Amino acid sequence: MTKSEAARQAAIDRVGDSYVYGAWDQPCTAANRRKYARLSPEYAEAIENQCQVMRGTKSTCKGCKYEGRKIHDCRGLTSACAGEAGISIRGQTVARQWAEDVWSAKGEITTLPQDTRYAQLFRHNGSKWVHTGIYIGGGETVDARGHAYGVIRKQLSQYKWTHWAIPRGMDEEQGGREVIYSAVVTTQSGSLNIRSGPGTEFARTGSFPKGETVDVLMEYDTDGDGAPDWAFVGGDGKQGYVSMAFLTREDEPAPPDTPAPVSPEPEENLRYGVFVPCESRDAAEALKKAHPGAILTAYKPPDE
Question: Does 98 share its domain with 199?
């Protein structure tokens, strides 16, 4: 996978995490929150308001929406996601991150390349750099917005971003792509769309026919529910992103087939087509059910 894909997925994985001023991708615990509350007393109340242990309403984190998540401020989030791609962006303020010598390209937001899959976003207001976040392609962003919001995923147009910057090396491969497993395209009919990114909002670039075997190279959890729903796959000279709803792993055991009903073995003298006289139609039907397929006619009216 490329470094931009690794950094992009890192941003998506952190959607739903908590915002804590000064934090840089640490586990969300009461102890860590207290540490940053002490370091930045002006934000202590806001940090406390998002923690049930600090508020004293509960003695543990159990049941909190941030249980098991991480804490970030905007600079900590961008640094952590770039770090997943092996790129260091360690400026301690938004202005210092913008000024770091790590960018291959940068510009005003109106010049953001349309096909960009990952970029760091900035907001300049007056004479200050006031916020930073991440562009994940397809017109979407991820940023640690504030104590009341946490890490959120929004449309680019929903915030006043003013600048963008792309770190050097983001388009390089990160260790190459390894096949995770093979899968079969199992659409109900027709073919499976290949897209330029993990989501229906991305452009269609081709398709795989039903029954095609593809190699799954990367899985993506785009909705943040903990289960992958899109995959980057390759097959028949094509690569791209497809919905996992229409893939079936080849190494998964097939569901057991429903066994065909087994007809009772007919008695030796009840071979197919043999006429067996019966005293009534009910007796004939009972005989047919007991020996399906063995008897053509089983009822002979008394006058025949």
Answer: no
**By residue range, what is the domain housing residue 107?**
3-167
- Provide CB contacts within 8 A for 300, sequence distance 6+: 275, 277, 278
The domain that holds 76 is classified in CATH as 3.90.1720.10
**Residue type at 132 in one-letter notation:** T
The four Cα atoms 142, 146, 148, 152 give a dihedral, to 10 degrees, of: 0
Give me the helices (H) in 30-126, please. Answer: 30-39, 44-49, 52-55, 74-84, 94-99
pLDDT band for position 258 (cuts 50, 70, 90) = very low
**What is the distance between the alpha carbons of residues 88 and 86, in angstroms, rounded to a whole number?**
7
| Residue 228 included in any domain | yes
State pLDDT tens for residues 60-93.
999 999 999 999 999 999 999 998 888 888 788 9
Q: Is there a domain that residue 173 lies in?
A: no
Whether the predicted pLDDT of 40 surpasses 70: yes
pTM of the full structure? 0.58
Q: Tell me, yes or no, whether 13 and 75 share the same domain.
A: yes
